[in-house]
Amino acid sequence: MAIITLTTDLGHNDSYLASVKGAIYTQLDDVKIVDISNSIEPFNIQEAAFILRNCYKDFPLGTIHIISIDDELTLNKEHLVIESDGHFFIGSDNGLFSLLFKEVLPQKIFRLNISLTTNCMTFSAKNIFAPAACHLARGGTMEIIGMPINNFVTNKMDLTAVIEADMIRGSVIYIDSYGNAITNIKRKEFEHLKRDRSFRIIFGREDEMITEISEKYSDVPSAEKLAIFGENNQLQIAMNRGFANKLLGFKIYEIIRVEFK
């Protein structure tokens, strides 16, 4: 059975999400639809790319991922279908794919040329992405629904940590539903600079500091702050049984510094 995932900003209170799923089931009854997240902040391609990048590899090879964020078709935002890392990705060329494929380059990229069967030009998830996904799920090829693109240009839209001899300066790029502030500081970068040195993680008004990396949240008492590398090997500032974003005032793009001595 084919798997089609949805990562969208369509929400759950309107009819849009149900219409997309209905369109898929109308064309293909033997399919499994998995909601990765339909609560992406509207137009926030960074959030969508972060969430999908951290989970798509857990799906079987051949899974088809629909990404519907800021996907209205324009001359500067064409629709693409991409094969990468054994998966298929369908969405808008609005910078999202450059964020998604930072470490794994696409093998094939096609510009979608699916004919619309409706006059509605603003519901790409239902009228363009769903038919493309169903075509692939039936075993169809990308060549039938698109034109190949040979030069994929990576737009440098993602914030990366600044690495110096004795410091890493990063930022909060995502806050999860537990209030954990996830940063763009990677474990590999941290360990490369740390070696046998001590360190301190500084944030807030520079009066908040952490000097240890925890292995699990319960390493500290309840309501105590901690630093931990999650499954994605990115540094996060959290609070055991508490919401770090609320109690420590974290916001997206807030600066986090790691100083080594």
List keywords for this structure.
31% strand; 7-stranded mixed sheet; 21% helix; 261 residues
How would you describe what is shown here?
The strands form two sheets. Strands 8, 9, 10, 11, 12, 13, 14 and 15 form an eight-stranded antiparallel β-sheet that branches. A seven-stranded mixed β-sheet has the order 2-1-3-5-4-6-7, sandwiched between helices. About 20% of the residues lie in helices and about 30% in strands. It has about 260 residues and is of the alpha+beta class. The mean pLDDT is about 90. The chain is built from seven helices and 15 strands. Helix 1 packs parallel to helix 4. The longest helix has 14 residues, at about 125-135. It is elongated. It has helices spanning about 15-25, 45-55, 95-100, 125-135, 140-145, 185-195, 245, and strands at about 1-10, 30-35, 65-70, 80-85, 85-90, 110, 145-150, 160-165, 165-175, 180-185, 200-205, 210, 225-230, 235-240, 255-260.
Brief summary of the model shown:
With 261 residues, the protein is an alpha+beta fold. Helix content is 21%, strand content 31%.
Uncertain parts: none
- How much beta, percentage-wise? 25-35%
Oligomer state equals: single chain
The succession of helices and strands, N to C, reads EHEHEEEHEHHEEEEHEEEEHE
Shape: elongated
Major sheet description:
8 strands, antiparallel
Give the proportion of residues in helices.
10-25%
What is the number of strand segments? 15
Lay out the secondary structure:
Layout: E1 2-8, H1 16-27, E2 31-37, H2 45-53, E3 64-68, E4 79-84, E5 87-92, H3 96-100, E6 108-112, H4 124-137, H5 142-145, E7 146-148, E8 162-163, E9 167-175, E10 181-186, H6 187-194, E11 199-203, E12 208-210, E13 225-229, E14 234-239, H7 244-247, E15 255-260
Parallel strand pairs: 1-2, 1-3, 3-5
Antiparallel strand pairs: 4-5, 4-6, 6-7, 8-9, 9-10, 9-15, 10-14, 11-12, 11-15, 13-14
